[in-house]
Amino acid sequence: MGRSKRFKRFLKHKELFFLSLPAVVFVFIFSYIPMYGLILPFKDYKYNLGFWKSPWVGFENFKFLFNSDNAIRITRNTLLLNATFIIALLIVSLAIAIMLNELARKTVKVLQTAMFFPYFLSWVVVGYVFLGMFDMNHGMLNNILKIFGQDPVLWYNDPKYWPVILPITYVWKNAGYYAIIYFAGILGIDKELYEAAKLDGASKLQQIRRITLPLLTPLISIMVLLQIGKIFTGNFDMIFNVTRNSALLYPTTDVVDTFVYRSLKTMGDIGMSSAAGIYQSVVGFVLVLGTNKIIKKINPENALF
User: Fold this and answer.
1) How far, in Å, are 139, 160, 162 from residue 133 at the CA level?
2) Is pLDDT above 80 for 108?
3) Is the separation of the CB atoms in 93 and 179 below 8 Å?
4) How far apart are CA 238 and CA 170, in angstroms?
């Protein structure tokens, strides 16, 4: 009876099942099949012995990682930078979406295109854009400082500036994309609610606080949870290209991804690099579960699962 019900349900929704098939195949090939690589962090990988014959070393690769100062530094930088990215992006993209909702539709189309453009730029291009701004000799900012009689700043030598520069860069590139998602959510809100609020004398700020934000909360929860799932990935392409991989900036910009890349490139230690990768995945998974549990206690309807 159970099989019969499942088969009937499949026939009833067969179009949806077939529509999702390419995505299921993609996830299976690129997310599930490679999971056999999870044994690498527990092996001393030897090129001549191969993947399966390399000797087991247990948790030695993890000991090497956590006994060094690198683990504390890359964990701190990864979590703090990504937490800043999530908070700043949420505030800016929500503000943009709310402002778009107040503009005429023709103006909105032009602004959407302009704001969405940076999202399509590769981080390599963005890295050169910021090099043109921060270069010691020819950078735009240092030329402006010279005009006002100030000494040029060694942007790529001083790590104290980058906890501010990197979030600004991330928001500049991604705010347009997320603003459009939130704007689409606002368009789905019943306009009669706003009309009723106007009749009751509610100001624009009161409408935003009492109608827009509460009704957008489920969408905001989902977007934030998805971002928290990637909070322990270090945005390698952004940090590597924008900071020009300057070793002087490692105290505030070195994250898990850049550390794994450097470990592989300089030491060729696949086992230790894999240990850092699995550490990254486990912490990200725990953070998603913990955040979802907190949201579920506050409001079960806004939880992702």
Assistant:
1) 5, 17, 14
2) no
3) yes
4) 8
